[in-house]
From TrEMBL:
It is a multi-pass membrane protein. Keywords: Cell membrane, Membrane, Transmembrane, Transmembrane helix, Transport. One of its GO terms (cellular component) is plasma membrane. It is found in: Cell membrane. This is BCCT family transporter. It comes from Haloplanus rubicundus. The chain crosses the membrane at residues 12-34, 46-64, 104-123, 144-163, 183-201, 285-305, 317-340, 352-370, 411-429, 436-455, 498-526, 538-557, 563-587. InterPro entries: BCCT_transptr. The keyword Oxidoreductase does not apply. One of its GO terms (molecular function) is transmembrane transporter activity. PANTHER family: HIGH-AFFINITY CHOLINE TRANSPORT PROTEIN, HIGH-AFFINITY CHOLINE TRANSPORT PROTEIN-RELATED.
Amino acid sequence: MASHATAVLERLARSALLPVCVLSGVVVVSGFFFPAIVGSVVSGRGWLVLSLLFFGTGLAYLALLPVKRPDADDSQPGAPYLLRVRHLSWRNWVGGFLARQDPVTFGVPVAVLGGFFAARLLAPARTGAAVTAAQRVLFRQFDWLFLGAMFLAVVYALFLLVGPWGSITLGGPDAEPDYTYPTYFAMVFTAGIAAGIVFWGPAESLFHYGAPPPGSGAAPRSAAAAVVALTYASFHWGVSAWCAYLVVGLPIAYYTHQHGAPLRVSTILTPFLGVDRLDGPLAKFVDVLAIFATIGGIATSVAFVGQQFLAGITFQWGVAVGGSGALLFVAGLVVIYSVSAESGVQRGIRRIAGVNLVLFVLFALLLLVVGPRGFVLDAGAAALGRYATDFVSMSFVTSGPWAANWTVWNWSWWFSWAPFAGLFLAALSKGRRVRTVVFTGVVATSAASVCWHLLFGGTTLALQRSGRADVLAAVEAAGGSEAVAGFPVLAALPLSRLLLFVFLALIVVFIVTSADTSTLVVSILATRQGVAPTTGSVVFWGVLQGLVAGAVLLVGGGESLQVAAVLTGGPFAVLSVVALVGLTLAFRRHERDRSTLVGRVRAAIGRVGGPPGDD
């Protein structure tokens, strides 16, 4: 009955969303490409509302389209079961929601977030000072922890690619993947990167160009500084970064699909606690920490990305939307990603990830066609070469404040996002070989990230050096905000209006693909073990993320909350090492007599080149 009522409501919603999307899209597209005709009619807040209506109704309509093929069997409560949201009747909506929540993993993160904002409101200076002091101690006194854990993750990933354990099929030798490989890659990449890649794509290399790292030997704003800048941007978003997700996600995937452990972050402790003891205090502490890190990280990202989107609205139409515009944007995002998360992986999350990847590739191709290809290719090649030759030395740089503010900060940020991104990677990886998971989660994703930074960052530096755009001056005029960096770059290129349109679409779609995934993951972690989340759970956590983002904009403390969330990267850096030790013990115990990739290649060559055997 509940499913039938839901289907009726979704059908009515689709019939309303489509015409709104078409009508608002006509106005928005006309405003972009014919601003002289439409621009004088619509106000600044009107452009924001229309843009949200266009992007939001389009994505929501896509999420609510029915699934063409039937869902997989739900008789066995595993990852596929937990990824499908349960639709309860309206009478059981509140009761079913409360009955399914774990009192610890649900209550503690909510209380901690409430306490943080209460402290921020009552004693803002002390709260900010306490968070800053904790950051200084962790990043400068324990920088070796982040650098060592990340390098270990890279070495372990490389071993899995070529070693004997890469041939393990998650779920058993007969298990089949639930998603095609392009869909698998799209969901892994877009969930784990968020809008940070859009936010920092034109900005990070620009900052390193203006102030090169100590010891690089490059003068500020020089040709050598451009190569160094692209090298470090690639380093911070490349192989090392994505390994943080892998070393949390792969152990969860192995224990969940191979040994029937629950789909939770605390599952990384399975070799030490056993499957039956993953409901104890230590396991719950890990899950609580994961929820806080996820909510804090995503909510602050939503707030900061909202500022970037509003900067684009102001840049395009020369109008200000005011403080209420940011809240309106956050509210619109909450509706979009909550609808996507509620529709489940098979519908909204999968489809919007596909749209995201298409827009990502389209924007990159447009930028390559109209941008300064010569500089991008030359500087990019030099940066890749330096990235390869200096990788080990960059991995262990501890040059005081710069390393703490950039490399160590980035590593802690990636580790703090590893719980939700790693859990999602684990949930999607049933039927995949370990080698495929490593290749997708590290090699393919980091290749996409590095290419983006070389292309967008290289274009930014080329325009800055040639004088076609003074991006550094634009950032300085905006109070040092990196949110504005991309817009003067796009304005200086041919097809600037098309580029800006796709760029703004990417901002929305990238944050939606991370926020819908994080909402679903947190709903799973806050629900009792083995019980799938309901619509009420998804709506609650989606709205909570929006409320936190709104509180950041109203009360302030966005940077403090972001730092507090990022500081959870410290415990997860330690847990990543523990997870790798446990995974190694489990592999040695259960996965003996497996050949390496090199051994399989040699065997294949021997079969081809050797003498024919007797039949």
